[in-house]
Amino acid sequence: MILVTGGAGFIGANFVLDWCAAGEEPVVNLDKLTYAGNLGNLAALKGNARHLFVRGDIGDRAQVEALLSVHRPRAVLNFAAESHVDRSIHGPTEFIQTNVVGTFALLEAARAYWSALPEPERSRFRLLHVSTDEVYGSLGPHDPAFSETTPYAPNSPYAASKAASDHLVRAYRHTYGLPTLTTNCSNNYGPRQFPEKLIPLMIHNAVTGKPLPVYGDGLNVRDWLYVGDHCAAIRTVLERGRAGETYNIGGGAEMTNIEVVRALCRILAELKPGREYAAQITFVKDRAGHDRRYAIDAAKVRRELGWAPAETFESGLVRTARWYLDNEAWLAAVTSKEYQTWISLNYAGATIPA
Which pLDDT band, with edges at 50, 70 and 90, does 88 fall under? Predict the structure, then answer.
């Protein structure tokens, strides 16, 4: 039995689905079901006796302690997080509450549970904390990629809150001996991603004839990782990673934002012809404090654990576009009034045709 937190969100739901498809070990799935937590992501598991969904908050220590006591998982995987930079700029409070205070509560509950376990369960227990490359800050065009020893330099409230959570996880390992694992990943993309992030936002706007808003000059660089590859890496780290270690997970696919959008327009032209998607590209006012470049050095996880991504950026992008085109009902359900309000807030003002 494992306990997954945030398992109705984008990465968490993909992980739970892959986990249930790959084996017989049950999973308890705890999620608060905020705007990005969606039970529709888990529809394929309806009636599956190996998946137990529980609505709740990692910040509710009593609830987490009860789940640990009743289900006695061998591992806790923490995907629960507020995760969007733009939302953290407009409203940082929830990011501090979930990512810092919530992680602290989860660590306290896990420490109490682990401390009371008999051997050999105590030695086998792991807490895996899923984090981001944004904790490392921004790179120059010729700087080496982020490694596990790169100093933290977060530049947004979101990144700072995740950096704080990483530090708490490290401290609980160093001070209490809690057997933790931390993963820092690059930009994920794939099925079931809430359409405030770049790729699903572009797909949604493209097929509905809306502008494709690109921040600034479009030359901000990210390293792109297909979510299925990320989930495989997390499973590998859980099973073979060394307690107390951090592993950077990246797709090895550095792309500027405008390159991503243009590649997506080409793919959509093949999959859903009839519209000049590239003509919808517009440049909009840049995000406040927008980091210029991220890049992940994933040599450690490749070398020590033998993981490597199975998808190229292009193959993953095709799979992603097909999923959204085939799941219009899912997309319609999540693009609610709240979502439209958020889009208006972030992409308001004059746009410049690409």
Answer: confident
- CA–CA distance, 160 with 269 (Å, rounded to integer): 39
Residue 115: both structure tokens together: 């401390």
Cis status, amide bond into 120, omega within 30 of 0: yes
CATH number of the structural domain spanning residue 155:
3.40.50.720
- Residues carrying an active site annotation: 133-134, 158
For residue 40, what pLDDT band results from cuts at 50, 70 and 90? Answer: confident
Q: Which two tokens stand for residue 270?
A: 């093949």
Q: What angle do CA 274, 279, 280 make, to 5 degrees?
A: 95
Least reliable range by pLDDT among 93-97, 129-133, 216-220, 319-323? 93-97
Sheet strands side by side (includes 75-78): 51-55, 27-31, 2-5, 75-78, 126-132, 180-185, 246-249
Q: Which domain holds residue 139?
A: 2-187+224-252+293-313
The CB-based long-range contact list for 274-277 (8 Å cut-off, 24+ gap) reads 275/206, 275/207, 275/209, 277/206, 277/212
Which among 62, 60, 245, 57 is positioned nearest to 166, based on CA atoms?
Answer: 245
pTM recorded for the entire structure: 0.92
State the Cα angle at 157 between 156 and 161, rounded to 5°: 115
Is residue 348 included in any domain, yes or no?
no
Report if residue 270 sits inside a domain.
no
The radius of gyration computed from the CA coordinates of the chain, to the nearest angstrom, equals 20
Strand (E) positions, 85-241? Answer: 126-132, 180-185, 187-189, 212-215, 221-226
Question: Cβ atoms within 10 A of the Cβ of 137, count?
Answer: 18
In the block, tokens 């890496």 appear at 233
- Longest C-alpha distance within the chain, in Å? 64
**At residue 54, what is the residue type?**
V
Q: Does some domain include residue 125? A: yes
Contacts of 89 (CB under 8 A, 6+ apart): 156, 157, 287, 288, 289
Give the Cβ contact number of residue 138 at 10 Å: 18
From the CB of residue 35, how many other CB atoms can be counted at a distance below 10 Å?
16
Q: What does the block give as tokens for 72?
A: 């006695």
Dig out the tokens for 110 from the structure.
Answer: 């896990």
The SS3 call for residue 173 is: helix
